[in-house]
From TrEMBL:
Pfam families linked to this entry: DUF1648
Organism: Lysinibacillus piscis
Keyword NAD attributed: no
Protein name in the entry: DUF1648 domain-containing protein
Domain of life where this protein originates: Bacteria
Record keywords, A-Z: Membrane, Transmembrane, Transmembrane helix
Keyword Transmembrane belongs to the record: yes
Residues that span the membrane, as ranges: 16-36, 60-79, 114-131, 137-158
Length: 164
């Protein structure tokens, strides 16, 4: 199958997404560091579908969120740089390769940045719950996760279906 290695520049939307996703993620880590000494020993560690706390754990377990977020950030950023290894339909050819690569890379970029924002939000809300400033993630959390991951995928599939 035709799979050239192309160097496609990032779009303005990708750059903005990276600044927003990465910036909020870093800010959440800084917030965690700032609040660390004031955190109680037990903090929320897991939430049910309604956003209610269903497991508590050591504040050290809170470090899992930024660790997973950092791994996702690095891995997805690497895959963004290698669109030639992504999965494409048989109709990929030298006339449409740039559009397929760009569409696939945009999907990865949007999902990566949504995950970073999501992890930042979970970290901040977990700290707020531990500090008794709120009592749950909120009923809106699960719908946001579903919609926030589905929209980029659906958009990518629609764009991909229109590439000839």
């Amino acid at each position: 199958m035709y799979r050239p290695v192309l160097k496609l520049p990032q779009t303005k939307a990708e750059k903005i997404g990276n600044y927003i996703g990465g910036g909020l993620f870093i800010l959440s880590i800084l917030y965690m560091i700032y609040m660390w000494e004031d955190l109680p020993t037990n903090i929320p560690m897991h939430f049910d579908g309604a956003g209610e706390v269903d497991r508590w754990g050591s504040k050290w377990q809170l470090l899992i969120l930024p660790a997973i977020g950092l791994i996702l950030w690095v891995m997805m950023a690497l895959f963004e740089k290698m669109p030639h290894i992504h999965n494409y339909p048989e109709r990929l050819n030298e006339k449409n390769v740039e559009r397929f690569y760009l569409n696939s890379r945009k999907l990865l970029n949007e999902v990566k940045n949504f995950c970073l924002i999501l992890f930042a939000g979970i970290s901040v809300q977990t700290i707020r719950i531990a500090m008794e400033k709120t009592d749950s993630l909120g009923w809106w959390f699960l719908p946001i996760v579903i919609i926030g991951t589905a929209i980029p995928v659906i958009k990518c599939l629609i764009v991909s279906s229109k590439i000839k």
